[in-house]
Amino acid sequence: MSSKRKITVAYGDGIGPEIMKATLAILEAAGAQIEPEVIEIGEQVYLKGISSGMEPSAFESLKRTKVFLKSPITTPQGGGFKSLNVTTRTSFGLFANVRPCKAFSPYIKTHYPKTDLVIVRENEEDLYAGIEHRQTQEVVQSLKLISRPGSEKIIRYAFEYAKRYGRKKVTCMTKDNIMKLADGLFHKTFDEIAKEYPEIQNDHKIIDIGSALIAERPEIFDVIVTLNLYGDIISDIAAQVTGSVGLGGSANVGEEVAMFEAIHGSAPDIAGMDMANPSGLLNGAIMMLVHIGQPEVAEKVSNAWMKTLEDGLHTGDIYQEALSAKRVGTQEFAQAVIERLGQKPTNMVAAKFDSSAAKPMEIKMNPPKKVKKVLIGVDVFLDWDQDDRDPNVLGEKLRAADADGLKLQLITNRGVKVFPGGMRETFCTDHWRCRFQTSGMDEISHSQILELLKQIAGLGFDFIKTENLYSFDGIRAYSLAQGE
Ligand code: NAD
User: Rounded to 5 degrees, what are φ and ψ at 274?
Assistant: First the structure.
């Protein structure tokens, strides 16, 4: 029986085939014990009418091998196509996206030569759940879902990663000054979990100043853990400041399956020209080698790659007249790396991967705490565009609805209180949130809500959705309106 580890490989679109050919040639020459199982994904599959961009047989291959080395793909323009990356991440539970961003100065030009940070991005939740609706003529919504286990899992992963790779600090980034419940849950979970890792420093930054600091003083960061959307944005900022968008690799890690890729796209502008830098995919492949228990091969490849950069053999994207020795194409670059296998960089710090890094990261979750949940009201959202959108007219009409003491308490428009006692100047759309509670905020029943909706429909209103209001262990579990 072959001792080679089967891996699923996709050559992708655009520059994908060229950089994959180069990467696999280097891995083979370095003695990687891998057996690629090639699948087709991307543009051609989309154009066959498969909206996920991946045939069922490709999913089967991944289920078997559990390791995916993937070239970038081209997502066709227009609607109806689902993001293959998002589908793979969510279908296989790849909850952590890990993106190391390191400067390779002076060989790669950067203003921040000391940058060496790792972004650990939550990969399954947040606005990426893709639950969106158009509700009125003027308003659409996109739901941001954050869960306690989802937050706990990624935060624990970030601390375990820091421990395993000898990193000193984990920084959490959220916007919990505004999204007090959603981002607040992530931040609160971070504070709780951080206490279990006293040997690792921790801090929190609001995402806006956090992003600004990555762009201006990236060397102050070590490991950063954040929500899906923020992670997507800051990882591009971080890659850009290291001057190495074409060099970064990333790992998408789940409990069973993991996917490794370059951070860049399929670069159709240079496809087929033998100009692309294969380093991003190669760095993804190095992370894969560590993951499948071949750290010594990973080390060998990484050191030969750094030596190639030091020797000034550079593809066009990183070529600098003053520093580079030769501008090389994709395959010549790969050949140069192959020729340097066994060598170490002279000036840069040589790679060192511990064999313990191959062990699956153990993420032990705290058992969920059950708390008392009580229904204490309902927000009824209306599409209403009459009477010059005067909130006082709407409020007076809705006062007629009374389901056994469940009555209108306030109306907001885009989150701002407009009734009772709103300001004439507030701009109103056709989308209204009407809050119904008893005057004593008592517990209510679902049948009261059904009765209320019947009455609201009877008054001629189009209710577009409802959102129940709960308390958990006596604590209000919904946001107040601005001006409430
Ligand atoms: P891109 O990353 O493909 O290209 C941006 C610029 O960087 C281009 O000028 C390109 O020539 C250059 N570049 C990228 N990789 C390079 C490399 N290895 N060597 C040298 N130069 C390189 O981004 P884009 O143009 O916005 O997207 C092109 C396509 O890629 C789109 O269809 C997009 O949806 C897709 N995409 C795929 C992935 C993925 O599969 N993971 C990620 C991002 C974008």
Answer: 55, 35
Best mutation site among 13, 123, 264 for ligand 1, i.e. most ligand atoms within 8 A of its Cβ?
A: 264
Q: Is 54 in the pocket of ligand 1 (CB under 6 A)?
A: no
Q: Considering the chain, what percentage of its residues have pLDDT values greater than 70?
A: 99
Backbone angles phi, psi at 35, to 5 degrees: -130, 100
Protein residue with its CA nearest to atom 16 in ligand 1: 246
427 exposed, middle or buried (CB, 10 Å; 0-12, 13-18, 19+)? Answer: exposed
Q: In the prediction, which pLDDT does 282 show?
A: 98
- Whether 245 shows a pLDDT value over 80: the answer reads no
Say whether 412 sits in a helix, a strand or coil.
strand
Domains along the chain with CATH numbers: 1-91+250-358 (3.40.718.10), 111-241 (3.40.718.10), 373-476 (3.30.70.1570)
pLDDT band at 37 (very low <50, low <70, confident <90, very high): very high
Any ligand 1 atom below 6 A from CB of 65: no
- Asked if 83 and 76 count as a contact pair (C-beta separation under 8 A), the reply is no
Ligand 1 neighbourhood includes 106 CB (under 6 angstroms):
no
Ligand 1 center to 437 CA (angstroms):
52
| Model pLDDT, residue 2 | 60
Would the CB of 85 count as within 6 Å of ligand 1? Answer: yes
Dihedral of CA 57/63/65/69: which sign? positive
Q: Look up the pTM and report it.
A: 0.91
Is the Cβ atom of 330 under 6 angstroms away from ligand 1?
no
Residue 153 pairs with which residues in a beta bridge? none
Region 87-94 average pLDDT: 87
